[in-house]
Specification:
24% strand, Dynein axonemal intermediate chain 4, 11 helices, WD40_rpt, 24% helix
Length: 710
């Protein structure tokens, strides 16, 4: 069969491939065949549409099929070859197969032509010509005989009736009698108002004089209008004058409230009020006698006496309840240690004075507290949650004894504050560590809450919470005289770092805390156990404390319950390891008087007393089944220390008893104690809790021993 086109040319389709009966066709699994099998070059596109026909009887069938396939697009048709069962040799498997991919014809599924054309396209001129012709037709249509108006009937929408009920509109006619004076005054008001606005841009003296003149003129006008007109114009004038006076008063009051002198006066007045309100409490804090007001007159003597009587009754009731509570916790061993009978002894107790709390700190957990190095009345408190699920924005507040009701400085932090400390070389600098691992330094002299420096741009910043930071003074050695101050931090990422304060904060590692295997004694006949694989090679750091005399040595507590003695000169290994706790070590503290002893507290409910030369605990204190979050030695005695666990605060006196605390203060329901801090110059204790309250207690009847040796 032959096919000819309209011009007589032979367009009969020819088959792409002529099969050879002697050639074995390999099995094809894809649409494109390899050129290695068919001997084609890289530019030849072979298709697997033809099938092997062993006999010549099917030649016509093959030609018909090829013509049928040629009339369609070969890329859209797939013909499955006959499956020839044969085993491939290793040479066939190792042979290289080349596949050539070419772009097929684009198939349009949906074509939505655009109604706009770019002015730079080829069809822009043609489209503009068509638009011009259409505009000419529209303009020439009216009055042209070629266009005939024709009526057409369309279906109209169904009409709907809608009724609305409303109140009847009442029309009223009102009238009033006016005179020419009323008309004159009403028109004259519109001329006075722009004049008064122009006067506002002048000086204060000019404003006051002009205002006085305007008031006199208005008063004259109102008198004249009262004589010969109704009261309508008078009311309009009076309202305008009152509005202008009110506006001037508001501007003046705003200027007074925002002035620096007024702010300073308010500051002094606030100080005086706080001194008057908290005078008895502050006197007890500073161990001064409480003064009474001698200027009370006889007229108010009855009221003052009634108030004093009510306060005395309340005080006696609280005193009785507290004495009953404290007597319940006086251990016989304490009485025997003092060599006194219960009738002779006056039990030591904690007397609450006041609390540092405000609306801003309410609900935030107290994470750390520290006194200023030069101002003993300035206290810095960090607020932040210890639990990952309870994280929210943190606060760092500076409280003063002169105002216990509102902090002097408030520094807003994006993350919870976990540690803070004042600098000794620059007392105005406050270093703050946060839960996300960042460190920031604030200037407490500035009222701006922005940080001077932060570790956000440091490449070596911590990746875990900064649980403790401290400014440490160290000797310069032979290179110079005096002492050098360094900022040291410990984090949950297992690093103890020293921060360099330059144009930006950057740190170097003092040591990386490596995990240590627990020493388990092997029982007789027990097989040797395989060592467990560690998830992380570094242990999370929880706390540290430098030696009070030799700042080259320090202790580091870890999450696995170990305490390592480290040296600043050696950053590869520990000097000693103290094993005694079964849970994370939350705090370690050297004794300030007996410098070879130190305390540690842990989540295993215990407090342990250590000697630096012995890796075995000397004493273990455990009085409650709760986490011990914080401990601190008394600055006045080598025997007294305070401990804060979740349920109560305890005062221990080792010269009296090593079994029970001498004072125990229980927490309120749903409140947990988090930190303790002794006052520097007085016998007072500060206690922070999980509700954001820092309570100040006075230590009463707790005599400090004369000896400073444990």
């Amino acid at each position: 069969l032959q096919v000819f086109d309209e011009e007589g040319k032979d367009v009969t389709p020819h088959p792409l491939f002529h099969s050879d009966p002697n050639t074995v066709v390999p099995r094809q699994g894809k649409l494109l065949a390899s050129s290695a099998y068919f001997g084609a070059t890289g530019s030849v596109f072979l298709s697997s549409f033809s099938m092997h026909q062993p006999s010549g009887a099917n030649a016509s069938l093959e030609q018909k099929r090829s013509r049928l396939l040629t009339s369609y697009n070969f890329s859209d048709v797939q013909v499955r070859q006959e499956e020839i069962k044969e085993e491939l040799t290793k040479a066939d498997l190792d042979r290289r197969v080349d596949l050539y991919l070419t772009e097929t014809e684009t198939v349009w599924i949906l074509d939505m032509p655009s109604v706009v054309v770019s002015v730079e396209s080829e069809d822009a001129g043609r489209v503009l010509e068509r638009n011009r012709i259409y505009v000419d037709i529209c303009t020439n249509r009216p009055g042209n005989d070629r266009f005939v108006e024709k009526m057409m009937q369309t279906i109209n929408g169904a009409a709907k009736n809608k009724e609305v009920q409303c109140d009847k509109i009442i029309m009223e006619d009102k009238g009033m009698m006016v005179t020419s004076w009323d008309l004159y005054d009403s028109f004259h008001i519109s001329e006075i108002e722009p004049t008064s606005k122009a006067e506002g841009s002048r000086t204060t003296t000019g404003k006051s004089s002009k205002s006085h003149t305007t008031k006199e003129h208005d008063r004259t006008m109102s008198v004249s209008s009262d004589r010969g007109s109704t009261t309508s114009s008078t009311m309009i004038l009076e309202s305008a004058v009152l509005a202008r006076i009110h506006e001037e008063e508001e501007c003046h009051s705003e200027a007074v409230l925002t002035s620096e002198n007024f702010q300073q006066d308010l500051f002094f007045m606030e100080r005086i009020l706080m001194e008057n309100i908290f005078q008895p409490k502050l006197a007890a804090y500073r161990q001064f006698p409480v003064l009474t007001d001698p200027d009370v007159t006889s007229d108010t003597s009855g009221t003052v006496a009634a108030v004093k009587e009510a306060k005395q009754e309340k005080h006696d009731k609280e005193k009785k309840d507290k004495e009953e509570q404290k007597e319940a916790f006086i251990d016989p061993s304490i009485l025997s240690g003092l060599n006194k009978t219960p009738e002779e002894i006056v039990p030591p107790r904690l007397e609450r004075l006041w609390s540092y709390v405000c609306d801003l700190t309410n609900g935030h957990s107290v994470s750390s507290m520290v006194w200023s190095k030069v101002n003993p009345d300035l206290l810095a408190v960090g607020y932040g949650a210890f639990d990952f699920k309870e994280q929210k924005k943190g606060l760092a507040c500076c409280w003063s004894l002169k105002n216990p009701m509102w902090p002097e400085r408030i520094f807003q932090c994006e993350h919870g504050v976990t540690a803070l400390d004042f600098s000794m070389a620059s007392p105005n600098l406050l270093a703050v560590g946060m839960y996300n691992g960042s460190v920031a330094i604030y200037d407490v002299r500035s009222c701006n809450d922005a940080a001077l420096l932060d570790s956000s741009e440091s490449s070596n910043k911590h990746t875990g919470p900064v649980w403790q930071l401290r400014w440490v003074e160290q000797d310069r050695g032979a290179t110079g005289d005096g002492k050098k101050e360094r900022l040291i931090c410990i984090s949950a990422d297992g690093r103890i770092t020293e921060w360099l304060i330059q144009k930006r904060l950057d740190c170097t590692d003092l040591i990386k805390i490596k995990r240590t295997e627990s020493e388990k004694k092997k029982l007789p006949g027990e097989k040797e156990r395989k060592s467990e694989a560690l998830i992380s090679q570094q242990a999370a750091g929880m706390c540290f404390d430098f030696h009070p005399k030799d700042t080259n040595f320090y202790l580091a507590g870890t999450e696995e319950g170990h305490i390592h003695q480290c040296s600043c000169s050696c950053n590869e290994q520990f000097l000693k390891t103290y094993r005694g706790h079964k849970g994370p070590v939350y705090k370690v503290a050297w004794n300030p008087f007996s410098t070879d002893m130190f305390l540690s507290c842990s989540a295993d409910w215990s407090i342990i007393l250590w000697h630096q030369d012995s890796q075995t605990p000397i004493l273990t204190f455990s009085s409650a089944t709760a986490f011990v979050h914080d401990i601190m030695w008394s600055p006045k005695s080598a025997f007294i220390f305070a401990a804060a666990n979740e349920s109560r605060v305890e005062i221990w006196d080792l010269s009296v008893s090593t079994l029970n605390p001498v004072i125990s203060l229980f927490a309120n329901p749903r409140v947990k104690f988090t930190s303790v801090l002794f006052a520097k110059n007085t016998d007072c204790l500060l206690v922070g809790d999980s509700k954001g309250e820092v309570s100040v207690f006075e230590l009463q009847n707790l005599a400090a021993p004369n000896s400073n040796k444990v």
